[in-house]
Amino acid sequence: MSRQTILITGVTRRVGAHLAEHLLDAGHRVIGTYRHETDALKTLTGKGLIAMPLDLLERDRLAGFADMVANWTDRLDLIVHNASIWHGDEDCAADPALATAMYTVHVTSPIELTEALQRSLPARTRDDGRADRQVVFLTDAHIDEGDPHHIHYIASKAAIESSIRSLALRYAPHTRVNAIAPGLLMFHPEDDADYRRQRLARRLLPFEPGPGVVAETIDYLMACPLINQAVIRLDTGRRWGN
Ligand SMILES: NC(=O)c1ccc[n+]([C@@H]2O[C@H](COP(=O)([O-])OP(=O)(O)OC[C@H]3O[C@@H](n4cnc5c(N)ncnc54)[C@H](OP(=O)(O)O)[C@@H]3O)[C@@H](O)[C@H]2O)c1
Predict the structure, then answer these.
(1) Which residues have CB under 6 Å of ligand 1?
(2) Domain 5-234 homologous superfamily, CATH
(3) How does pLDDT run along the chain (242 residues), one tens digit per residue?
(4) What is the pTM of this model?
(5) Which of 39, 54, 60, 221 is the most exposed, having the fewest neighbouring CB atoms within 10 Å of its CB?
(6) Whose alpha carbon is nearest atom 19 of ligand 1?
(7) Which are the contacts of 238, defined by CB distance < 8 A and separation ≥ 6?
C-alpha cells in the first residue's frame, strides 16, 4: 500500500498508542492527538509521530485544530476517532457533567472535527470512483449486549455508531465511513483475577486479545476500498442466552 497520511485521536496510551506505532512501523505518516504527555507519546514522537494537542471537550477549538492539520499536510487518507472516556452511571449521577462530557468526546466533537477537516482539507472526488478518505470510529460491542452500569457510555457509543450511515451519505463518493466495535480488548492493571475470569468466561473465545486486533482491522479497512457504512464487531461472537 502506498504511504498514507493518518490522523488518530488519543494516542497517549493503550489502543491509540499501539495503533499509531503499528502504522508508523508500516511507513505511514501519522498525526496523533494528545492531552497529556506520556512515555508512550515520547516513544511515538521518536518514531516520527506528529503530535498535536487536542482536547475534544473544547469544541470551539476544533476548527483551529483542523486548520493546523491542513497547514501540515495537503492530504488526509484516514481519520481514526479513538479518543474516549469511560464513566459509570453512578459517577454520572453524582456529577451530571460527566455524562455530557461522554457525549461531547464520543459524538459531538468527532462529528464536528470530521466536518472541520473536510472544510480545511477537503477530500476530493476521484475519477475512478474510489473514496479519497476514510473515517473510522471506535465504538463498543456492548451496544448490542447492553450494560446496566454504563448506560450513558453505551448510549453515546451507539449514537456515534448510528452516525456512520448519515455521514457516509453526506460524504459519498469522496469519503467512506466505518466503525470498529470492540468487546473486551485489554484489562486495566487494577482488574483483579476474579474479574478477569468472569469477563473471559462470558466470551465464546475466552482470551484477552490486546490492541493488535484493532490495528489488524484498520489494515483491512484501509486495504479493502469497497467497505462503507460497515460496523466490524471484534467480540469473538455472541454467547446464546447470555
Ligand atoms: N480497551 C478496551 O477493552 C475497549 C473495549 C471496547 C471499546 N474500546 C474503545 O476503543 C478505544 C480505545 O480504548 P482504550 O482502552 O485505549 O481507551 P483509553 O485507555 O481510555 O484511552 C483513551 C484516549 O483518549 C484520550 N482522551 C480522553 N479524553 C479526551 C479528550 N477530552 N480529548 C482528547 N482526547 C481524549 C486519552 O488521552 P489523555 O489521557 O491525554 O486524556 C487517551 O489517549 C475507545 O474509543 C474505547 O471506547 C476499547
Answers:
(1) 9-10, 12-16, 34-36, 54-57, 82-86, 105, 138, 140, 182, 184-186
(2) NAD(P)-binding Rossmann-like Domain (3.40.50.720)
(3) 899 999 999 999 999 999 999 999 999 999 999 999 999 999 999 999 999 999 999 999 999 999 999 999 999 999 999 999 999 999 999 999 999 999 999 999 999 999 999 999 999 999 999 999 999 999 999 999 899 999 999 999 999 999 999 999 999 999 999 999 999 999 999 999 999 999 999 899 999 999 999 999 999 999 999 999 999 999 998 776 54
(4) 0.97
(5) 60
(6) 14
(7) 144, 145, 204
